[in-house]
Structures are given as structure tokens and as C-alpha cells.
Amino acid sequence: MNKYLPLLEKKIANLFAIDSSGHDINHLRRTLNLAQKIQKKEGGDFLVISTAAFLHDIHRILEKETKKFCHPKESLSIIEKLLSEVNFPKDKIKNVLHCIEFHEEYGFSDVGKTTKDLETLILQDADNLDAIGAIGIGRTFSYGGAHGLNMWLPEKPFDRKTFNESIEDPSTIHHFYSKLFKLKDNMNTKTGKKMALKRHKFMKLFLNHFFKEWKGEL
Fold it and tell me: Staple partner for 139: which of 22, 60, 79, 82, CB 3.0–4.6 Å?
């Protein structure tokens, strides 16, 4: 049991309460649940994984405040302060911060993956699982609406060769091709890979139906 999570939730719940981009408190809870499920199968430090999963998106609050892209590392001082306030074990704070700093690494980005510790790899898998499947579809359209993106721009090609989190896609549908469809093969753990298969398949079925409706075929 992670006794620190209820204390941390009290501190951050209001920060995420009005989010409409798919990075709300429920995303944190789902990522936490997924991370714990994977940890049960794969191992790793339960306390570090759980805590990092629950605090991994504090940088999204900074983005909302500054109206610009913020890397997860920009949130580390805030997270360290939160952990200190709940008397989190000092010898594990560094590990939590490391997981959060590197949780947005993708093999299909310019930088690629640079970290190999199990805790970070599990957090990456948990966060990416919540970005795909039925939940992922809903979150993607929420994010697009919150950032003023068109649903789809057919005249724009799917031509992004590498992914960069700081660059917006032309439309919400483009995001499926630049990132979401690539996450299945970006999973780290055996458990994560297995869980990603059904979610990936569901997204494929959804877009197949979407394009048929767009053309008036259904």
C-alpha cells in the first residue's frame, strides 16, 4: 500500500480538476492502476512506480499556466517539494523524479529512448496504454478540442517521420499516425505489449469506420 497517495491527491486534485485536454486527475488514476498492474507482473519498486505514475503530469499544469510546451523535467522541483511535504522517503525521491523526467521518451522520436531502469519503463508503458484504445481515442479528441485543432484535414499528408512532443499535429486524426499507432511497438514490458494489442486493434477499427463515415459510405 502506498500511504502517500491520498496525501498527494489532496494537494494536486484542484490543479487537475478543470483540465479538458485528457490530462485530468482521472488520467493520473488510470495510469496509476495500469502501472501497478504491470508492476505486479514485471517487478520493480512498487512505491516509486506508483508515486511517479500519479505525479507524472504536473508539467501539464505548467503548460496551462505558461501557454507553451513544458518538458517533464521542468516540473521536478515542484514534485520534489510535494514529496517532501508528505514526508516521502528521502532515499526514493531521486528515483521518482528520474521516472517522471524520462517518462515521455519514444523510440520513434529524434532522441529515442535513453533510459533502461524498470521503474521508468513501466511508467512509460502505463502512460502510453492510457493514450491508446477507447480511452485514448476519447483523450485524443479532448486534447484536440482543448488546443483548437481541427478534427481532420484531409488535404494534409501523414508525413511526420519522427515524433516531437513539442510540435502539434495538423489535426486530431494526424495524431493517430504520428504517435498513437506507433505506441504498440514502443512498449517496453511483456505485460505492456500484451495489453497494447487489443487497444491498438480497437483504434484501427475506429479509424476505418471514421473514414467511411467521412466519405458518406456508411
Answer: 22
- Give 166 or 210, the one with higher predicted confidence: 210
Residue entry with cell 502506498: 2
Q: Is 121 exposed, middle or buried (0-12, 13-18, 19+ CB in 10 A)?
A: buried
Closest alpha carbon to 101 in 81, 128, 72: 72
Q: Which residues of 155-189 are buried (b: 16+ CB within 10 A; e: fewer)?
A: eeeeebeebeeeebbbbbbbbbebbbbbbbebbbb
For 10, residues 6+ apart whose C-beta sits below 8 A from its C-beta are: none
CATH number reported for the structural domain that contains residue 195 in this entry: 1.10.3210.50
pLDDT the model gives residue 161: 82
Q: How many domains does the chain have?
A: 1
Provide the whole-model pTM.
Answer: 0.95
